[in-house]
Every structure is written in C-alpha cells, then in structure tokens.
C-alpha cells in the first residue's frame, strides 16, 4: 500500500488523486518558472530596444512581436500555478464565522466552479485559435504564427482546468473520509 493510501485509511483512489495532485503541482511550478523566465526575456528585449534606439537611432526589429510572445507565455503559464498554489484572491465576509457550514460548502465548490469556468474559456478560445490557424495569421514584423501565441493560452487554460478538477476531487475525497 502506498504512503498516501496508508494516510487516507487505505483509499487507493485518494492516494491516486494525491499523486496526480503532486504531479500537477510540480508541472505548474515548472510552467511558472518558464513563464517568469519569458517575462525576464520580455524585459530584456524592451531594455535592448531602448538602448538600441539611443545608440543606433532605430528600433529593434521585431521587439514588439517578441515582447508580446514572451508576455503571453508568462501570463498564460502563471494562471495554472495560481490555482495550484491557492494564490487566488479571496474575500472574508463579515458573517463567515456565523455561517461556517454555508461557507465551507461554498469553499468546497469553488474548485469545481473554477474548473467549469476555465473549461468554458478553453472551449471559446479553442474556436478562435482554430480560426487563426486556418487563416494562417502571423505577427506583424517577424511573421511568428499566431497559433503559437494561442498555444500558450490554450495549454494554460487546459492545465488550469485539470488542476481545479484534481483539487475538487481531493476535497471531495477528504470530505468522504471525515
């Protein structure tokens, strides 16, 4: 029996969900690291462009395309990490202590609602991305295929959906044990 199964009173399903949760946490850590490296790259491109304008009197060709590409990677791959790390914004309401059971139920449903929202956004974005791919749209200066920009967004939303579903399953199985 696995360590997680022993801790959960022998539930293999709970142990499997814990393993998946651990994998998703590691994946989102890596994506966030790559995303932040891309953000540093975007900053470096802007700085180089500014210096090049001062020294050479011209702008760096493709600076806008590359900056947009890097920012898209950073933003899209940071979203799953925020869900994984529970770094989303919460608001404590005045009556939260008095209505503890109600808010506990709401807190348990939030990951499922977030998964639904991210899945819906993924569905809508997928359609738009496929249009971009069909038309063969490219960026203005460097002709970077726009589908690559969309790939960051789509993967970020898909992984966010999975992270939220795993969190919901983990909460659901934890409640069943109690």
TrEMBL record:
Cell compartments where the protein resides: Cell inner membrane
Annotated InterPro entries: DctQ, TRAP_DctQ
Residues that span the membrane, as ranges: 30-52, 109-127, 147-173
One Pfam match: DctQ
Domain Tripartite ATP-independent periplasmic transporters DctQ component: from-to ranges: 43-172
Lineage top rank: taxon: Bacteria
Topological category with respect to the lipid bilayer: Multi-pass membrane protein
UniProt KW keywords: Cell inner membrane, Cell membrane, Membrane, Transmembrane, Transmembrane helix, Transport
Keyword Aminoacyl-tRNA synthetase set for record: no
GO biological process, one term: C4-dicarboxylate transport
GO CC annotation terms, alphabetical: plasma membrane
GO MF entry, a single one: transmembrane transporter activity
Principal location class: membrane
Assembly, per entry: The complex comprises the extracytoplasmic solute receptor protein and the two transmembrane proteins.
Similarity comment text for this entry: Belongs to the TRAP transporter small permease family.
Role: Part of the tripartite ATP-independent periplasmic (TRAP) transport system.
Name by which UniProt lists this protein: TRAP transporter small permease protein
Naturally occurring in which organism (per UniProt): Thalassospira xianhensis MCCC 1A02616
């Amino acid at each position: 029996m696995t360590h997680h199964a022993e801790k959960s009173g022998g539930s293999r399903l709970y142990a499997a969900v814990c393993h998946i949760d651990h994998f998703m946490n590691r994946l989102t850590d890596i994506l966030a690291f790559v995303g932040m490296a891309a953000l540093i790259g975007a900053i470096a491109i802007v700085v180089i462009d500014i210096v090049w304008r001062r020294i050479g009197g011209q702008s760096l060709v493709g600076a806008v395309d590359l900056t947009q590409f890097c920012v898209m990677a950073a933003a899209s791959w940071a979203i799953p990490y925020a869900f994984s790390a529970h770094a989303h914004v919460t608001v404590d309401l005045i009556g939260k202590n008095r209505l503890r059971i109600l808010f506990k139920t709401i807190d348990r449903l939030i990951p499922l609602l977030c998964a639904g929202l991210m899945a819906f956004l993924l569905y809508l974005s997928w359609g738009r991305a496929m249009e971009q791919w069909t038309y063969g749209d490219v960026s203005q200066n460097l002709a970077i295929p726009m589908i690559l920009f969309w790939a960051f967004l789509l993967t970020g939303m898909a992984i966010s959906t999975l992270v939220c579903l795993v969190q919901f399953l983990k909460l659901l199985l934890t409640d069943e044990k109690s």
